[in-house]
Design brief:
mainly alpha; two-stranded antiparallel sheet; two-stranded antiparallel ribbon; 19 helices
Length: 476
């Protein structure tokens, strides 16, 4: 006679309905036919039930937020690197911001005090009230646009000093060079400050395919191109100031110049050491192959060896190449007329290039040749503008043409964007803002340039187009 068995109401619906309730039968079934739950006990164990593992792992078995959170420290930038860039590039950014919003105002005299010069920055700026030209602001002749005689009602070298008409007295061409040098300096140093100080940390994207992650990771090498380019740029800035340290010393601006040289050198050294250290610890990347589309054809969007963006590459090639050509001319060959550029001679005359660097065997050389050394400060500012614009073009050109898309690996998780795209996007965002600032400054000087028979509409259209493309592909 079969023994009667008592069945109770099921409390755990996820358990197998066919599993026996008897302890001996349950033990035998667990060892044979019943699926293994890895020792899972709904009442006591803290393990995730196997039926729920697929949900927490994202779509298609991707990494869950908990898996990536455990390695968050490997994705963050080293704190000493962030502090170094914040202090060194921040100093240059503040000085450039002064040139844009308060041209001629000495604000860095405290730095000169480190070298025993209380008025080093005032000497760096220049020629105010027909006084003897002395030092940076005196050296660069920037103080002629600074006036605070009316207190808060004064223009004080701000944007209101930009007039609609160019005359020999107001020298709008000289003001254009100084304010554009400030904008270019802000754009160049912001390209290092924004990605490093305001890091886009990796975050789990539940809406992405396979539960991938977004953001930039230090351990994945996303910041290696930025560190390399930043180191090259800082070395160029250091050499630029070192080559002119004697002139600035004679102008009484040794304190500020030595502080700028020290800041750029220290930042270049720190960027180089961190780049070398990370590259030595990183594992060699696997060789990737082209990926085919679902239909069997070649899909350039999924090719890890293709450019980060072909549209950005073409835009940068057209716009930044022309910009780099003019800026390198101003840096290396100031005063040289490029005949294939329309109205280039008018541009050089408007910006005062014929005063400090008159072309040889010309009327300007005969008239201004003997007085050219007196305009060494104007030449310094013009070459500084050329240097910063050239470095900005280098960043944009390398971000579009310097590396390929790469793979999606970001440690133990997968990234939505490939590594090369992540590295490029952080530069595109910063330079989109830089181009926007440059566009605004060009627009402000358009009426003054028009009175000097110089049309800036082509400049505006080219810079606006590049800013739009960089903004579009950088933020989306």
């Amino acid at each position: 006679m079969a023994a009667a068995t008592t069945r109770r109401r099921k409390i755990f619906p996820h358990r197998d309905e066919a599993a026996p309730l008897d302890a001996s039968e349950g033990a035998s079934a667990a060892g044979s036919d019943a699926p293994s739950d890895d020792g899972y006990d709904n009442a006591k164990s803290k393990k995730v039930h196997p039926s729920a593992r697929g949900k927490s792992g994202g779509r298609g078995g991707g990494a869950s937020p908990d898996e990536g959170a455990g390695s968050a420290a490997h994705h963050l930038l080293p704190l000493p690197l962030v502090v170094t860039v914040l202090v060194c590039s921040g100093l240059f950014w503040v000085a450039s911001f002064r040139d844009v919003m308060a041209t001629g105002k000495p604000i860095l005299d405290r730095l000169g005090a480190l070298w025993g010069q209380e008025d080093a920055d005032a000497n760096y700026l220049p020629l105010q009230n027909n006084e003897l030209q002395r030092g940076p602001q005196q050296y660069t002749k920037s103080t002629q646009w600074f006036d605070d005689s009316k207190g808060w009602k004064s223009k004080q070298g701000g944007l209101s000093t930009i007039l609609a008409v160019t005359t020999d007295a107001n020298d709008m061409g000289g003001l254009y060079v100084r304010k554009m040098a400030g904008v270019a300096g802000m754009a160049y140093h912001a390209a290092k400050l924004l990605p490093i100080v305001f890091q886009n940390t990796p975050q789990y994207d539940a809406m992405a395919k396979n539960g991938r992650w977004t953001g930039a990771s230090w351990s994945a090498g996303h910041y290696d191109p930025l560190l390399a380019l930043g180191m090259i740029g800082d070395v160029c800035v250091t050499l630029f100031y070192l080559a002119r340290v004697d002139d600035l010393k004679n102008a009484g601006a040794t304190g500020v110049v030595m502080a700028l040289i020290l800041a750029s050198f220290v930042e270049a050294l720190v960027l180089g050491l961190y780049l070398l250290n990370r590259r030595m610890k990183s594992k060699p990347a696997k060789v990737t192959k082209r990926t085919s589309a679902a239909g069997g054809g070649y899909d350039p969007a999924e090719d890890p060896n293709s450019l980060p963006s072909r549209i950005v590459a073409r835009t940068v090639l057209i716009v930044s190449s022309l910009m780099a050509l003019v800026s390198l001319r101003d840096l290396l060959l100031p005063g040289t007329i490029l005949s294939f550029i329309p109205r280039d001679d008018i541009y050089l005359e408007w910006t005062g290039a014929f005063l400090h660097s008159p072309p040889p065997d010309t009327v300007e050389a005969d008239e201004q040749g003997l007085e050219a050394p007196l305009f060494a400060g104007d030449k310094f500012v013009s070459q500084l503008l050329g240097l910063y614009l050239s470095l900005c073009c280098l960043f944009k050109f390398m971000s579009a043409w310097g590396w390929s898309k790469g793979n999606r690996s970001m440690g133990t998780v997968q990234s939505v964007d490939r590594s090369g795209v992540v590295s490029s996007k952080m530069m595109w965002k910063a330079h989109a803002l830089g181009d926007a600032m440059m566009l605004g400054m060009l627009r402000l000087f358009t009426p003054a340039a028009k009175t000097a028979s110089l049309d800036l509409r082509w400049h505006l259209m080219l810079v606006a187009y590049e800013a739009f493309i960089l903004f579009l592909y950088g933020f989306w």
